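Handout, section B. The chain below has 295 residues.
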Amino acid sequence: MPDISYSFYRSAEPAYEIERNLPVDIIGTGHEVRTSRSYRWDNARHLFARNHTFQFTLSGLGYFEYASEGRRIRERVGPGKMFIASWDQAFEYYYDGGAPWDFMWIALTGNFADQVVQALRRPLPIVGLPTDSSPVSFLKSLQERLAGSYRIDHYELTGLGYEFLLQMLKEKTRTEGRPEDRFLMEARDFVTRDLRNACVASLAGRFGYAEKYFNEYFKRRAGTTPNRFIVEQRIRYASSLLVNTRKKISAVASESGFAEENYFSKVFKKYRGVPPAEYREINKDRVPVSEVIIL
């Protein structure tokens, strides 16, 4: 399996002064497969350098944690997900067991990179990308070129950096305009505002449909049933309460929209693989986070 990375160093004077002030520069890239829980990076291991690391998962699963509005968020990074770990935002990313984490990455620096990343991370520093999208194809092509006898200088790295960032901006503009994305965001907002009372009938009413026809409509738009969608939002919220608070399981169940604790435990185990109490125990040593699940 591939496991290789490349670092690019600036030349000596006098070209160094020019290269140091380039608006964007690729400082490293790679295609790696990780199987050990010792794989873990954060701001400190990045030496607090003014870099932005884009990492795209091909297969397997990793985790990305970052600070947002006084909270620490943890997101699962599965196939098709790319996160952006930036120097100006506390972060940590790591492998936590399971299938090998196979990913490609690229690290950039420069004022232009800073500006583009500000736009790319709104609202979240993690995005879903098709494997045939332009940014992913760019990374694959770059790895292939570097694996051969291809030599590259910093001026070409600047051009390639521009190309990658512009492709990311173009992809963001394209995906933000998809009706499917807006539909899911509206559905998620509606459900999470009132988890206790959310139901298929109320969600159908939100979009102006009779419940009888809404199930098929929602499944066609979202790829899942409205009932399962509502349950997933409740499990997401319950997971956050279990990790971030010491509330009793019964209270977590109630706040998450489950009327009975036993039923809550049964459903939680189905989605998380372990009962609520065990999930809390497993995560007791983690920095408190709000787990975010992106459908």
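Note. The chain has two domains: 4-176, 179-292. Compare this with the example in section A.
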